[in-house]
Amino acid sequence: MKSTRFAFHSRARAFTLVEMLIVVTIISMLAALTMGGYTYAMRASKRRTTIGTFEAIKLALERYNTEFGEYPQAAATNQMAQFPPGLVTYDTAGAACLYQALTGDGFDQIKGVTSSGSSGGGSGGSSDGKVEGAAEIKNKMFAEIPQTIFTRKGSAYILIDGFGHPFQYLKAATPTVTTGSGGNSTDTPTTINSTYDLWSYSEDEINTNKPSISTLTDPALSAAWIKNW
Asked: What is the pLDDT of residues 92-113, one digit of tens each?
């Protein structure tokens, strides 16, 4: 009789399967809410960092234009590289040009700059990651450059946004394009602004090969971008 009462009380104190499932569900929901909040906070922080760097680049570009009478132009295009997460492909040409033009470290990524006598950096005008000292050129538009806003990718140093991806930069130009059998020439703009287009793809990891000009016909492409148009 005593053993029967003990068994009865043990069953009364135990959780049922339904109760266990409810507890597990609640814990899972709380964990999801916590992780969701953390992810949102991290994205917001990266976006704020990107906006701050973005504004600093714009100011530095205006100083460059005042100093040299023009905005820098990337020496190349379509310098493609992969970046995590997911190894998404980005063009690093504009970011490499910005790094050199605004830090004074090298010159081979800036179109039209060929004299080592007017620039610092490594051999052949390449960047060496050093932005201090007498060897660097006078176009040091950043008084200070934090290590967090630039990185080395391949053989070039580039300016990066808060997401660790290269900033996109394109100087305005209107190249003459010959069209039609009659050889008619038309000027086709390559940028939205008459000066330069500057943008970060931000958290967008789908449209990372879309140029700025493509957003004129499809504004939804740049919904998540941080841009100057």
From this structure: 999 999 999 999 899 999 999 8
Neighbour-count burial of 203, counting CB atoms closer than 10 A to its CB (0-12 exposed, 13-18 middle, 19+ buried):
middle
Query: H or E stretch including 144?
Result: none
Question: In terms of DSSP H, where are the helices of 69-147?
Answer: 93-103
* Predicted model pTM: 0.76
Radius of gyration of the chain (CA): 27
116 SS3 class: helix
Angle between helices 93-103 and 17-68 (to 10 degrees): 50
pLDDT of residue 145: 78
Give Cα 219 distance to the centre of its chain.
19
Q: Would you list the domain boundaries of the chain?
A: 49-227
